[in-house]
Each structure stands twice: as C-alpha cells, then as structure tokens.
Design goal:
Arc Repressor Mutant, subunit A, 320 residues, 2 domains, single chain, 13 helices, 11 strands, alpha/beta, seven-stranded mixed sheet, Rossmann fold, 47% helix
C-alpha cells in the first residue's frame, strides 16, 4: 500500500483534506469489491496531537511528524483560508515548523530516485514553495495565490488556469474541489481508470476534470450524467472489455429492454450502446500501443478478436 500522509496545520481547509481522503478511501472500497487489496493507507500527521480546521471542527488523534518517510509515501499539503495578503501572513500557526520538517525530511526523499510523491492542494503549493521543494517544476495553485507562488518560487513555472499540474513527483492543484480531481487522477494512475471512474460515480463528480491533457481516457467518455442504469453498463464494459457485449447482454446489465437501453444511451451518453463498446475497446487498444505493446497483444487486451476489427473500428470513429 501507498502511505498517504496528510499534513494538518491549524485552520486547515477541511474540504482540501476530506475530499481527497474520501476519494482514496473509496478507491480501497472499489478495489475490495473486485477482490483486490487496498492501495492506500491514509494517515494524518501534525506537529500537535490535535488541530483546528477552517470550519471550527477540531481534529484529534493526529500522528507526530515522522523522522523519515515510509517507502514510496505520498505527502499531501493542504490549503488554509484567508491567506491572500503576503508571506508574513502565511508564516503563522505552525507554518514555520511544517516548512522545517518538509526541508529536513521530505526534500531529501523527493530528491532520491524513489516513488515518493508530493501532492499540494491550494495554499499547500505555497508551503511547498517556501520549503524549497518546487525547483524549476511546473506547478499551480488557487488563482488568488498565483502571484504569491511566483514570488516564493521564482524559478518554478507557475501555470495559471489549470485544475492541476503533474511534473515528476510533484502534483499540484488549484484547490478546494480541484483536490478531488487530483486525487482521482492519482487513483487512475495507480489503480486504473475503471477504479477512478467508479470512485467519481460514487462521489457524484462524473465530469472529471484533468490536467492539460487532451487525450482523456476513453473510460471517461460519456460519463457526464447521473443515470444509474447507464453507469452500470459503462462500468461492466470498462471492467470486461473483452466480453461478448451484444446489445441484449448490455441490456441485461442495465435491467432494461434493448430498445430502452438504446434510448438511455442516446439521451445520457450521446452514443449507441454498440458504439460505446467499440470506443472503449479502441481507446484501450491505442493506450496499449502507446505503451509499446505489440499490436496483436494490444488489440486482444482491448477485447478485439483481430487487428482487422480494431482498424475498422478506429476508421469508423475517425469518420464520425
């Protein structure tokens, strides 16, 4: 499992914490439902055993800051409200102690060729900058704090108007709900897009936003809706793309008639059930080819019987 360490400071913006944390918890739940082991161990660390939050709720039972990171651990830095003025405003309520710990413990870990990761939400990116963790990397933060970030990290490439940015082991987000988008991205990278899509469905955030990546996963296409029957079919196809998915089989998953399923898909996903299956298979095949798999293996993993079927499906989609 990956240890995910949420660094909690006084007045932490609670949604920056619980949004990503719930996404990781639900990912473990989805993995368990598929007979797979959990992927994330959630931990909450702080310089004090308890800390207040932005809404007045106090968090207790917090772990002390560790002297070293567990192998492959991720550290999550969170936002705080009302920090628009200047760096002196930021350096209150545990900020300096957190900066010292990041410089002493996290910076050396990130510099090593390991799987350690740094996730920042909103003002968490400013803390990472103040601790010297960003270097020349591309990063982002909440739009209200972009100028402060540029001053704190003058060598970094500050990206405006981005939901999140991934640059090596540093993954930064714009804050608040963008932390959920970043968590879903991390879940997709670690557990697969089918798990990430299932988590997004459970959290009712079907319109998953991505980084500056025009090649969105095919498993996310047609997901911007709330219809449970259509989602059941989409989940089944994504989990078993090689199954013999004719329309009656898809309708059986949805518990509706084939004709009604066709209407549902047109209204909610914008494609026919058959076209949806073909798109998923084509997208998975192209992803496998991009990873360097031989053509025969890529098309077989995606659910196509032959390379010829894949070429025909891709040609039909490009003609649409």
């Amino acid at each position: 499992m990956i240890d995910v360490l949420f660094l909690v400071l006084p007045d932490t913006l609670l949604l920056d914490l619980v949004g990503p944390a719930e996404a990781f918890r639900l990912a473990n739940q989805q993995l368990a439902a598929r007979g797979r082991p959990p992927a994330f161990a959630l931990r909450y660390i702080s310089a004090t055993p308890q800390a207040s939050t932005s809404i007045g709720l106090t968090l207790a039972g917090l772990e002390p800051l560790p002297d070293r990171l567990p192998p492959g651990a991720w550290v999550v830095l969170l936002g705080r409200p009302g920090l628009k003025e200047s760096l002196p405003t930021l350096q209150r309520n545990g900020w300096l102690g957190a900066r010292h710990w990041l410089t002493k413990v996290v910076a050396p870990a990130l510099a090593q060729a390991t799987a350690h990761g740094l996730l920042t939400v909103c003002v968490g990116t400013l803390l990472a900058a103040d601790a010297g963790l960003l270097g020349r990397r591309q990063v982002t933060t909440h739009h209200e704090h972009l100028d402060v970030l540029a001053r704190l990290a003058p060598e970094a490439q500050v990206c405006a108007n981005r939901v999140f940015v991934v640059d090596g082991p540093v993954w930064s987000s714009a804050g608040v709900t963008a932390g959920i988008d970043l968590a879903l991205h991390c879940i997709g990278d670690t557990c697969g897009d089918a798990i990430a899509a299932a988590v997004a469905e459970t959290m009712v955030v079907f319109q998953r936003r991505g980084a500056d990546d025009p090649q969105r996963s095919p498993l996310l296409d047609g997901r911007n809706h709330l219809h449970p029957a259509v989602h059941r079919v989409q989940n089944a196809v994504c989990e078993r793309p090689g199954h013999d998915w004719d329309v009656p089989a898809l309708a059986a998953v949805a518990h509706v008639t084939p004709r009604h399923l066709a209407r549902l898909f047109k209204d909610h996903a914008g494609v026919s059930p058959r076209d949806y299956v073909e798109r998923i298979r084509s997208g998975l095949a192209e992803q496998a080819l991009a990873r360097g798999l031989p053509t025969a293996q890529a098309v077989a993993l995606a659910g196509f019987g032959t390379d010829r079927q894949f070429r025909r499906a891709r040609a039909r989609q490009r003609a649409q």
